[in-house]
Amino acid sequence: MERAQLLKYDLPDCPGVYLFTKGKGKAKKILYVGKATSLRDRVRSYFDDDLIATRGPRLVDMVTQSDGLMHETTPTVLEALVREAALIREHDPKANAMGKDDKTFLHAVITDEEIPRVLAIRGKDIDFKNKMSGLLKLKDIYGPFPSGYQLREALRLIRRIFPFYDTPRPIITEKGLLGRRVDGGNKHLQANVEFNRQIGQYPRDMNRAQYLRSIRNVSLFLSGRVKALRVQLRRDMKVAIKNEDFEDAAVINRQLFSLDHIQDVSLIKDEFRKEESGPRIEAYDTAHLAGTNAIGVMTVIENGTPLKSDYRTFKIRGVGGKSLNNDIASLKEILSRRMGHPEWQYPKAIVVDGGKTHKKAAEELLKELGIGIPVAAVVKDEKHRPREVLGGMRAHITDADAVLANSEAHRFSLANHRKARSRAMRKLP
């Protein structure tokens, strides 16, 4: 597909989902499913000149192969998120996996218990055939959700409208009250007031029947059947009014209003940050002492500012029997492990510490994984001061940003290595 072909689709400037397709009629295949804050702007971005640098060759190939486009509008970004997951599950488009097994993605599940819980579980921990996660029975499974961050934000937003438990331990009931099982199997009951305090932003007590109705609503939402949910809520409200339960009718009316007006600002910000903001850069560095206490780190710079909440630390394992003091092997190990987390937002560029050899090693690994993120390297002088930046222009980042990212990674790796070394020394006899 080419940019000129977009004109015939007249994409609106509103939230929704889009599907790149190939073929017609019964032979039509869904190549890719995505969501957007603005369908018009999001789909246009697939025809930008730097698509291969920002999204990788897999999506470039997908756009080249496609010859059609479908879209659905949604009232909110939150609905677009769950609709995207439902369509990915239905059509299983290859391009959505980004070269990764979708078992690395998170799923939302509803447990098969007397008092169901709503949890986020990684696909590798779910037996889809038998609907189990370990010994935990599952009633419903939703997803996969490509962004773990966005799924957690979505659940937080949904919970404001339809309360649910997400505790790590099962819920029990006694004398009509909702309680919580704690360590050792002891029963620690909580009155409805405490339940409401845990849920937050919910103005009244709930009995088991009301809670199960809330779970039903969550299930409809997560399955992408939000239109059916609205119909069901209107039906529930009519029944409440007929029974002169005006308090219940008022609660349902607020839920209907919230579905159309919930402030999914965090989801909008996350998508805006990916598409509109300054470059997001990941920098990597390692530290070790004669091959011991080897540590690898990932730091993130965005808009020229360290984003410390996204920093990660890796304990070097020495994959394949390679020496822990082998910088190249350590770099490839931590990059490989990082790319095994597609739920972490991908950067526009990667910065490594070293010269051409380190840069080439990182590029070769990314190529093997089918990920088209450009790599820059910061070369140091004999006093370990930045002397040159390799590949910065191709990565579309400034030398200043590359050096800042590299310096932050070096600082963070040394700090973590000191902690690891200190812990090791404390264990000595």
What distinguishing features does this structure have?
429 residues; 3 domains; seven-stranded mixed beta sheet; 13 helices; globular
Description:
With 429 residues, the chain is an alpha+beta fold. It has three domains: 3-73, GIY-YIG endonuclease (3-Layer(aba) Sandwich); 102-269, no CATH class; 278-426, Nucleotidyltransferase, domain 5. The chain contains 13 helices and 17 strands. Strands 11, 12, 13, 14, 15, 16 and 17 form a seven-stranded mixed β-sheet that branches. Strands 5-4-7-6 form a four-stranded antiparallel β-sheet. Helix 11 (327-339) runs parallel beside helix 12 (356-369). The longest helix has 28 residues, at 399-426. Mean pLDDT is 80; it is low at 179-203 and 272-277.
